[in-house]
Write a structure and sequence with these properties.
The complex is a heterodimer of chains A (381) and B (319).
Chain A lengths: L10 H36 L22 H8 L3 H6 L2 H16 L3 H4 L11 H5 L14 E2 L6 E2 L2 H32 L2 H13 L5 H20 L7 H25 L3 H9 L4 H29 L3 H6 L16 H8 L8 H38 L1
Antiparallel strand pairs in A: 1-2
Helix pairs in contact in A: 1-15, 7-10, 7-12, 8-10, 9-10, 10-12, 11-12, 12-15, 14-15
Chain B lengths: L1 H14 L5 H35 L2 H4 L16 H32 L5 H15 L2 H24 L11 H26 L2 H9 L4 H30 L27 H10 L4 H40 L1
Helix pairs in contact in B: 2-11, 4-7, 4-9, 5-7, 6-7, 7-9, 8-9, 9-11, 10-11
The chains are: A mainly alpha (381), B mainly alpha (319).
């Protein structure tokens, strides 16, 4: 037999190890695939290859032969493969359909300058435009109708507004509770309170949305007395409920990982428990609290059902008592009616790609900050 | 100098046991924050349990509704319960093997400092933070539009069979979403196993693979179960990822093939609370459905916590 080394000695072991390694690479593959396939559907919009104009120039059916195949293919929006499979008759009938569709455009839009605009161009996605019937340039998201208005700014503002309200509510509460549970509470209380707060994270977001819609909305309206019952404020508070357990867990973890020697030294020098917590433990765990906030932001901006159920009218306003529509709620509400492969569909994927990038960045920042903090605290221990 | 006197003055105050207003104020404020969170949780749970139990009945959970599921006296949620069960069950078939193998790689094989290990860990953390709606878009773009449609073309199906929303695609989407949950839980349980057990097995002549299969994995089984249960409880309540990948507003039949659509408990809560023709009248239905969903996820969570606690106790005795 002789002495073999490496994979020859135990071929099965070697194969198993390689297999295990390959399977574990699937996590990397999945993250890559998520970005690739969400971005893939959004690319035509991002590169300005879509045209959503209502009124478009037509090529009469009789002129088929006067144009190059490439022109006809682009005009009918076909892929190379589809075009190659079609005979002349099919092409003609497709062109016929196109001409008829243009003939069916309602009379009022014929001379409307907006009807000829390709609303998926970046300047209409990001900059205000003075639409017919408006007296000043405005940001409008109105994808349904004859003229599709796809301005992304109201959605981004809506998402940020609701998320920030949620964080303003959730972070002080969660961090306060984390300080109390990790530093001030007796061990018995701690062992009871911690899992109870974490129980909150077991409540599905659709249930929090339901609670916000049916119970909280009316209650908050009667307390604050604002006009619209379902607004960004209610959604933000409900979103806070969904974020609290996460911020609490991360902040509590960071505070607990501050070495005992810090607290013991402070207490031995005569500091009271709260002085120790406030002046010694909290400052050294501050990056952890920051990371908890950043990760909470990522969780909140990606939360869908709570916002979708509580408020969904897209209004361009920073007023917290106005309604708002978030990026997530827009995707969830409109994907069902968007035509697969159409401009509306692709713009919704563009929103998804934006969300992915934002949460990717917040995750990275949060993880790096926590990693460094843990390393620093353990190093000094 | 001045700070020194200030400090010692404070210390004097502490020693002479004067009433410490700062401590009172600070402890009170953080304690209040804790109480407020607990109160919010209590209000949500009491509200749902109080209103839910009074309208929950055996008939309600065991009836397949006719076309109009808003009819309070005849409707039921059996197909929703079955649909949710099927989708999470199919999900576990995919997520548990991949998750467990990845965790085995990370704890047993991976060199701790190599860049590839760091990237895998980064990917797991990132996956945990991707918004659920983005998973839904991924399911639609990848599973349905890419794999499904190409499969249809390959099999030369006359119409879309695979290239449309289905319970299989919803389960796969959820499997991708809950992968980090399984990995983290399994890894935690693998790390808790005393290294002495592995060393003993290796010293007796077992190979690394034999050690993992015969010694490490049996010990880690409760941890793997915990991970699976947590993943199921997380997935059972998620609605956003299945919106475009398989859920149906109404279906007369239960799903029979992997390519069928399904009805879902969480989605039904969404439908009942936003699309009811008369919200006051259907309120009991809504509360009962929410209660069933909540009981399901909480029961799973508690089971996971229970198994984990027992495993920790056992391993402590071993180590």
């Amino acid at each position: 037999m002789g002495i073999h080394r490496g994979h020859r000695a135990r071929p099965l072991e070697w194969v198993a190890e390689k297999f295990i390694f390959l399977v574990s690479l699937s996590t990397i593959l999945v993250v890559f695939l998520i970005f690739a396939f969400v971005a893939r559907e959004a690319l035509p919009v991002a590169f300005g290859q879509m045209n959503s104009a209502l009124v478009q120039p037509v090529i009469p059916v009789a002129d088929l032969d006067q144009h190059s195949p490439e022109e006809i293919r682009a005009y009918l929006g076909l892929t190379q493969k589809q075009y190659a499979e079609m005979d002349k008759e099919t092409l003609q009938s497709l062109m016929e359909v196109r001409v008829e569709a243009q003939n069916e455009v309602p009379e009022q839009f014929r001379n409307d300058k907006d009807a000829a605009i390709n609303t998926t161009e970046w300047r209409y996605l990001l900059r205000p435009h003075q639409w017919t019937g408006y007296d000043k340039p405005e940001y409008i998201w109105q994808p349904i109708g004859q003229i599709h208005k796809y301005n992304l700014v109201p959605l981004v503002v809506g998402s940020l507004k609701i998320t920030l309200i949620g964080l303003f509510f959730a972070v002080p509460l969660a961090v306060g509770a984390a300080i109390y549970v990790s530093q001030l509470a007796r061990p018995r209380t701690r062992e009871l309170v911690k899992p109870t707060i974490e129980l909150l994270s077991g409540i599905p977001s659709v249930v929090i949305g339901f609670f916000g819609l049916l119970v909280m909305a009316s209650f908050l309206q009667s307390v604050f007395g604002y006009q619209t019952r379902l607004n960004a404020f209610v959604a933000g508070i409900a979103l806070g409920f969904a974020v609290i357990p996460m911020v609490f867990t991360i902040a509590e973890d960071a505070l607990t990982s501050v070495p005992q020697s810090y607290t013991q030294a402070a207490l031995a020098l005569g500091a009271s428990r709260w002085q120790t917590a406030w002046q010694v433990v909290l400052p050294s765990a501050l990056p952890g609290v920051f990371a908890a906030t950043v990760l909470g932001f990522g969780r909140a901006i990606g939360e869908t059902m709570v916002v979708l159920m509580i408020c969904s009218a897209s209004v361009m306003s920073w007023n917290i008592f106005d309604s708002a529509r978030s990026l997530t709620a827009t995707i969830a509400a409109e994907m069902a009616e968007a035509v697969s492969g159409g401009h509306h569909y692709r713009i919704l994927f563009l929103l998804g790609a934006m969300l992915f990038v934002v949460t990717f960045v917040t995750n990275m920042v949060g993880e790096v900050v926590i990693h460094r903090l843990k390393k620093k605290l353990e190093g000094k221990n | 100098m001045s700070t020194l006197t200030a400090r010692s003055a404070r210390a004097d105050g502490f020693r002479s046991r004067q009433f410490d207003w700062g401590s009172f104020f600070f402890s009170g404020l953080t304690g209040l924050a804790t109480l407020l969170i607990l109160a919010i949780l209590a209000v949500i749970l009491i509200n749902i349990f109080w209103n839910g139990f009074s309208s929950l009945s055996w008939r309600f959970v065991s009836t397949i509704p006719k076309k109009d599921f808003f009819d309070v006296s005849t409707t039921g949620i059996l197909p929703m319960i079955i649909g949710t069960t099927i989708r999470v069950f199919v999900m576990t078939i995919f997520v548990i093997p991949v998750g467990v193998i990845t965790a085995i790689y990370l704890t047993e094989y991976a060199p701790t400092t190599s860049w590839i290990t760091r990237i895998i860990r980064g990917a797991v953390n990132n996956l945990a933070g991707v918004p659920s709606i983005v998973f839904g878009l991924f399911g639609l773009g990848f599973f349905i539009n890419f794999i499904g449609r190409n499969l249809d073309e390959l099999l030369q199906n006359p119409g879309p069979v695979w290239g449309q929303p289905a319970v299989l695609w919803a389960a796969l989407t959820l499997a991708v979403m809950t992968l980090p949950v399984v990995i983290v839980a399994t890894e935690e349980s693998l790390k808790a196993i005393p290294p002495g057990l592995r060393e003993a097995s290796l010293a007796l002549g077992a190979t690394k693979l034999e050690t993992i299969l015969r010694v490490v994995l049996p010990q880690a089984l409760p941890g793997i179960m915990t991970g699976g249960i947590l993943a199921v409880s997380r997935a059972a309540g998620e609605v956003a990822p299945i919106l475009f990948t398989g859920v149906a507003y109404y279906m007369a039949d239960l799903p029979k093939k992997p390519t069928d659509q399904f009805m879902d408990l969480g989605y039904h809560v969404f439908v009942l609370s936003t699309q009811s023709p008369n919200i006051e009248q259907t309120r009991p239905l809504l509360y009962a459905t929410v209660l069933v969903l909540l009981l399901l996820t909480f029961a799973l969570n508690f089971t996971a916590i229970f198994i984990r606690a027992r495993m920790r106790k056992k391993l402590r005795a071993l180590g």
